[in-house]
What does this fold into?
Amino acid sequence: MSKAFQNPKGTRDFYPEEMLRRRYIVEQWRAASVRHGFEEIDGPTFEHASLYTVKSGEGILSELFSFSREGGDDLYALRPEFTPTLARMYAQKAASLPKPVRWFCVPSFFRAEKPQRGRLREFFQWNCDVIGEGGFGEDAEVVGVLVGAMDEMGVGGRVRAHINNRAAMASLVNAMGVGADAVDSAFVLLDRREKLDDEALEAMAFEFGINDFGFLQFLKRPRRGGNPSVEIAVESTPEAAASEATAYARTLDEVAGALRNAGVGDRCVSDPDVVRGLAYYTGTVFEVLAEGERAVAGGGRYDNLIELFGGPPTPACGFGMGDVVLGNLLEDHGLFPSGNDLRDAIDRVVKSVSLRPEVFVVSGGEEHDPLVGPLMARLRRGVESESYRERGADAKPWDADRYDTSAGGVPPMHVRTTSKTTRNLKKLLQEAEKLGAKTAAIVHGPDKVQLKDLGARTDVGDFAIDSQTSNALGDVAYVGGAIAGR
Amino acid sequence: MSKAFQNPKGTRDFYPEEMLRRRYIVEQWRAASVRHGFEEIDGPTFEHASLYTVKSGEGILSELFSFSREGGDDLYALRPEFTPTLARMYAQKAASLPKPVRWFCVPSFFRAEKPQRGRLREFFQWNCDVIGEGGFGEDAEVVGVLVGAMDEMGVGGRVRAHINNRAAMASLVNAMGVGADAVDSAFVLLDRREKLDDEALEAMAFEFGINDFGFLQFLKRPRRGGNPSVEIAVESTPEAAASEATAYARTLDEVAGALRNAGVGDRCVSDPDVVRGLAYYTGTVFEVLAEGERAVAGGGRYDNLIELFGGPPTPACGFGMGDVVLGNLLEDHGLFPSGNDLRDAIDRVVKSVSLRPEVFVVSGGEEHDPLVGPLMARLRRGVESESYRERGADAKPWDADRYDTSAGGVPPMHVRTTSKTTRNLKKLLQEAEKLGAKTAAIVHGPDKVQLKDLGARTDVGDFAIDSQTSNALGDVAYVGGAIAGR
It folds into this structure.
């Protein structure tokens, strides 16, 4: 058959069944993003090729599909990733945008490389980013939406987010004798630890000109396997770097606290080996790994990038997740619905989304009430029904009764909170109304959360929460049931 | 500012508000398609460039963004339209596909031309096609889904589908003295009639070498303005071509009958001037025109194309509609929601879709029961509630009560029927079950339509229809109310 009549190598034809599978993934991404307060954006499919050399140098051009218009001067390139477009879009409107913005997108990207399993020339990728304000809380938010999507698709228990902090790691490596100019090489070595034995690692280190005994000792500590831990890393740190090791452990502890507050502490492990290849990460970095160490998603904080693209200095944190690897993971675990189950699953996912916030959670007292985060996480996750939980491993994520409200279930909700520092409740409720939120939950303490119907401007009632245990499921169910229009 | 930091000319950045507007249009397209029994597909964003020269010749290449992989031999091009991909995909699997397939897509396309109002370098376009079987019934189906979407968006009353038949028109023009090799030129003249006066038309005709008095007389007949009619065309046909004029009128009459049967007769006008520029159309052609003659969509039958792309001889009919022109039309009529209305409107549209058919309509007697088509059309259109209708021009398409079942409304439904010629009811119901249809409506006659719940395998009851008037609204509402799971 003539080549003209075949799709280009590394691209896909989506016949109806393949298209439904693609939509299942894309709609799960979209639903998780919206529930976590992210707004969808998109840029052009191609950009000025020079947009990609800003961050990656001229070398990137050989990896891109680039082209000009006949008779035109401008060189364009199909987007290989979203970050440059995102940075450009933010930079162009930085002055008029709220701080922070939470943006997501689900478009396709292109790589001009040889196709191989899991790496195609055109693929879909989910990106989520918080831009314009940033600390460990925002890092945890970004991990939260990622974990939320995995939970919804039923693979939450089969993946873990491996977390590290690149800045803290750089200080530690530095203190172990690695010069500032060799830190990137040291990170490459950490990144390869799981795949190389001690001898190969050492040979590679010498090749890089890294021969400090302290760092080599650190490099050869017990492998991750089951236990990537900050403790082992600290223990393996040479005496001379003890105080930096303590500082490193303290930083990771703070990150872990933020992750717990975002309700995803139990899905995450600290992992000193996760450093991410891309040099532009500046702080927290993470990878979601499935069994067999397969990386399903990755991301981190990149506080210098918006400035590089012509914007003001701006903190930012985000991740990317491709459709091919995720699809393979779902398939391998029997968690990809098919036939009419697939159709029903898509219907259910899209129907679960409310573009207007269903609950706007604020503190009625302290500025940063420690109960707000866990309550938001729980409302976003929803509560699986009794009948669903009873079926255990036989229950499928797309089962109709998963969040059945008549059996104690609560569907996952679109939940937001304020980014303002004001404690003026009236102003906070005005913000909620402007966003079109249906209800507000005002946290006065663990025993009293006041629920307001923002449409009818009436009090629905109070309920209690318990952020430490799951005893309060009934109360959260109450919130779910009380929300108008569900 | 550096050019690298701006989106390429003719492309768009979709910030959250722009993205919501894009989704409103795309989700309306998707919902209308699904309701009418079309299944979503997609192809790669780029194809082998040679795929586009098959239909359009080498000249097309200068209008495309084309590129190669560094060091690679293959020339690729960003897709300028969907038809070549569609034809390729169908041809590759023709043997194993059901007949017909009803496919739609909503992706973006690219033109390497100077951007102007309504014509961008990257834009979204909705395509719907019925492939593998075809007559006027399938032509009408395709017009039906198009009109259905316009109705849902509230612009149905502001547009009309102008219908013609290219084969019948060619015979007529031929009979008026235009040689076979000049028919395309004659079509260009017909196409320009509304924009040129008689003198200019005549000059152009002479330039094309068309100087037959009969055709010139036909060309100068009264302009469309308000009344594009087959009658005037027939009256203006020279005596010598009277029998072809009658044949032409008869063909258009048959097309009109099929359109009435598909429930869109009142949205269509026959228009002898609509011939469509593209030479590959073989039969029925149509354009949806808004006030001021703006073309919003266009399409037609193209029975030779699949073969050209390596497939078997295959009838096919479809249309395309771009997002930019449609967006302008909605905006101009105050029919583009904004703010929280926009969010709610999107939520409502996506929630209205059921990927499994809600009703499978079959004839319980005659093979082609004349009641089946109008009943399907009515169920797909739904019934607006009393309160909504009472508000008249003040009612907006996204109002919450539009299809309120508690006020006599029925939401538009996903309705299908069989493509088989069998009258064996058991086989037909098996087909419905295989498709996952929730209910079946078996038409025994205007007074008896039997409704079956296919999940519970029980009879829900009988109802009556009246295909000529709207007296049966209550009965259709009954069907709507009876369908499980709504």
